[in-house]
Amino acid sequence: MSETHNVRFEPVGIDIEVSEDETVLDAAFRQGVMLMHGCKEGQCSACKSFLLDGDMQMDRYSTFALADYESDEGYVLLCRAHAYSDLEVELINFDEEMIHSGLPVVTVTATITELTNLTSDITRMVLTLAEPGSLRFYPGQYVDIQIPGHVEHRSFSMAAPASPDGRLEFIIKRYPGGHFSGLLSDKLTAGDSLEVSGPYGTFTLKASSDRRLVFAAGGAGMAPVLALLRQLAEAGSERAMSFYYGARTESDLICDAELTELKARLPQLTFIPCLSESWPDHWDPATTGFVHDVVERHETHLTDSDVYLCGPPPMIDAALALLSGQSVPQEQIHFDKFTVTAESG
Ligand SMILES: Cc1cc2nc3c(=O)[nH]c(=O)nc-3n(C[C@H](O)[C@H](O)[C@H](O)COP(=O)(O)OP(=O)(O)OC[C@H]3O[C@@H](n4cnc5c(N)ncnc54)[C@H](O)[C@@H]3O)c2cc1C
Ligand code: FES
């Protein structure tokens, strides 16, 4: 049987017990401590922390998430880290509101109740939980869906807040040959069961802030932003907010009806669709190009805003560089990188 060690997180002064055969991040989930994380697979760097003391070893990870020089300096990825002695870890990125708000991670069964193609490569998938209420989550969070017949899973963000009837809505980009998304074209169908684990993710609204909100998303990154906008509408929020959404062409724009309804409920919401590949003659030239370029053109003082970014890694990295250039404080920046699962874990 593997040994258990104590891990202490600074500067928050929280202790957890970690067994050698689990990652520090998984042990924290198990004990209701919500540390910063994204992919949980050593790809995105959201869980990067500093090892102050102790013996730790890491599973395989991407050097995009943790460069060799950072590892040499003592930085670690908690989603890959196993403790082999008691540890002291400094969290370099944490959220006081979130850390104690951890909902229990559960594995539940759900049935596909809707599969609708929204564009040539984006599908809306709706699941219904076998037991409504068995999976609790905050808007903006995601679940891991097991690939049928495999041990592997893929992560997908809910596009709406939790509902009493156990409805989970997803917006999924289909990749030809994709182990999960490829099944949406012809293999999966309404009535099929899926195994879902969660909730995960820290892409949630911070209740304590009343700053202006700026959302930027690309492709299926629409999903968690839609969940946050629906949460704001339900709460009758009066915060000023802008949502920049990037697609390649006009026919790749999605969720028009949902956004029209949200604009009626949130009159202070400005929606700015951005087209990167081709656009009709009447299209405003200021909203052409990649979504981060359009944000840069329109937003010159983001230091007074809470910024939420969601989409593929290159989009997030470009937007983070823009925010860093404007000196936006770290605690005002929230992002979910839709990283691709590494070939062999
Ligand atoms: C926190 C998180 C939340 C996520 N939420 C969503 C979501 O709400 N909606 C959504 O659609 N996806 C989301 N993803 C991505 C999702 O988990 C899968 O990685 C994606 O659906 C591809 O899985 P797959 O099994 O279909 O393809 P895989 O079998 O993993 O990949 C097959 C091939 O498809 C291509 N491919 C796959 N993904 C990409 C990519 N991102 N960019 C370029 N080429 C790619 C590559 O060529 C790859 O080799 C999220 C990821 C993370 C980490
Ligand atoms: S690298 Fe650890 S959560 Fe993404």
How would you describe the overall organization of this protein?
The chain has a 6-stranded antiparallel sheet with strand order 11-10-13-8-9-12. It has a 5-stranded mixed sheet with strand order 2-1-7-3-5. A 5-stranded parallel sheet has the order 16-15-14-17-18, with helices on both faces. It folds into 3 domains: 4-99, Ubiquitin-like (UB roll) (Roll), CATH 3.10.20.30; 106-200, Translation factors (Elongation Factor Tu (Ef-tu), domain 3); 212-337, 3-Layer(aba) Sandwich (Rossmann fold), CATH 3.40.50. Helix 5 (222-234) links the parallel strand 14 and strand 15. With 345 residues, the protein is α/β, with parallel strands linked by helices. The chain has helices at 24-30, 68-73, 96-99, 183-186, 222-234, 256-265, 291-298, 313-325, and strands spanning 4-10, 14-19, 48-53, 56-58, 75-77, 81-83, 87-91, 106-117, 122-129, 142-146, 153-157, 167-173, 193-200, 212-218, 241-247, 269-275, 305-311, 333-337. It is built from 8 helices and 18 strands. Helices cover 19% and strands 32% of the residues. It is globular and about 65 Å long. The structure holds flavin-adenine dinucleotide and FE2/S2 (inorganic) cluster. Residues 37-40, 42-47, 65, 77, 79 line the site of FE2/S2 (inorganic) cluster (FES).
